[in-house]
Amino acid sequence: MAVEGNQTQVRPRSFVGTAPGKVILFGEHAVVYGQPAIAVPVTDVQARATVTPLTGTDGIWLLAADLPGFTDDSMGRRYRLDDAESDDPLRVAVELALAAFGGDTVRWHGGTEPRLLITINSTIPIARGLGSGAAVATAVVRAIAGHLGQSPSPEEVSRLVYEVEKLHHGTPSGIDNTVVAYERPVYFVRGEGVTQLHAGSPFGLIIADTGKASSTRRVVGHVRSRWKADPDRHQWLFDQIGDVARQARTAIEEGDRHAIGRLMAQNHHLLVALGVSSPDLDTLVGVALEAGATGAKMSGAGWGGNIVALVEPRVTSDVADALSDAGATRIISTTVG
Ligand code: MEV
């Protein structure tokens, strides 16, 4: 149905938006303080939002069945957008997308408010450093844009999702929304835009879950308070991590997998020194290396979540088996490039 006096075309049928997960290969935490970081999309896991026009029910309804804990209010139930807290991430994603792609006129199409059901499904583990929050918001933004007949650029989507990311933790660097919206490996420096990264030769990754959830907000807050208490030491650590990420960019572009692996080990040790690893993460990193991985490190905020290991095809199943035996609750095997 067309909106009178406006170019927006509201689609009468369901529209689906999707987004991948992500894993940070280099530079987490230091990226919040202006250092470069490298992240890649993980397409083996996905968030999906479906916008379905409703008849006979007023307002916008959200159904986030398999997102327990996404917000305290939305534990797998169907709820009305207007009844959610004003800082509910799903509500904010929907409202930002409606404002960006529909304008105020959407509120008045056919003389009524939009009547929609937005169903969210995701196979991305929550609070494990795999970008679940950014991916869900990206899927929602894309589904609403599609419903309104728009095809926003990755940059536009990323900009909106960044606003939602601020609700998850106050000072996001922007790397999660960027890699998820661009769906490409990225070399990212906060405030400097995004450089897409091209791997000189493909390489395999194994992502292994400790099974422990971790709050990015808490870990990032902890690092901030330690940085304030001892700025010189932390600035030194951030600078070192930045150097590793810069070298890793060259190694990835040149397809030098041994250098990538060595740099992953260096990055992990710097994150240990920063106080964001955990015994479980350290154990899985050690197990991956022992089983033949070329490199391994924790990934994301830390204190739980996932490790990422660089693997050659001939050792992939050995490394995966060893990680499972050591207690990893989920293994994702993926290829970059
Ligand atoms: C979280 O995926 C990565 C962190 O560096 C935080 C951020 O970049 O906003 C820990």
Architecture overview:
The protein is α+β, with helices and mostly antiparallel strands and 337 residues long. Helices cover 39% and strands 22% of the residues. Strands 1, 2, 3, 4, 5, 6 and 7 form a 7-stranded mixed sheet that branches. A 4-stranded antiparallel sheet has the order 9-10-8-11. β6 and β7 form a beta hairpin. α1 runs antiparallel to α3, α2 packs across α3 and α6 runs antiparallel to α7. The protein starts with 14 loop residues before the first strand and ends with a strand. The site of (R)-mevalonate has 14 residues, from α4 and α5.
Number of helices: 9
SSE arrangement, N to C: EEEEHEHHHEEEHHHHEEHE
Bound molecules: (R)-mevalonate
Mean pLDDT across all amino acids: 90
Strand element count: 11
Whole-number radius of gyration? 21 Å
Low-confidence stretches: 1-7, 69-75
**Strand share of the residues?**
15-25%
Q: Determine the fraction of residues in helical runs and give it as a percent range.
A: 25-40%
Distance between the termini: 41 Å
Query: Shape, please?
Result: globular
Report on the biggest sheet. 7 strands, mixed
Structural class: alpha+beta
Features:
binds (R)-mevalonate; seven-stranded mixed β-sheet; globular; 337 residues; single chain; four-stranded antiparallel β-sheet; 22% strand; disordered N terminus; alpha+beta
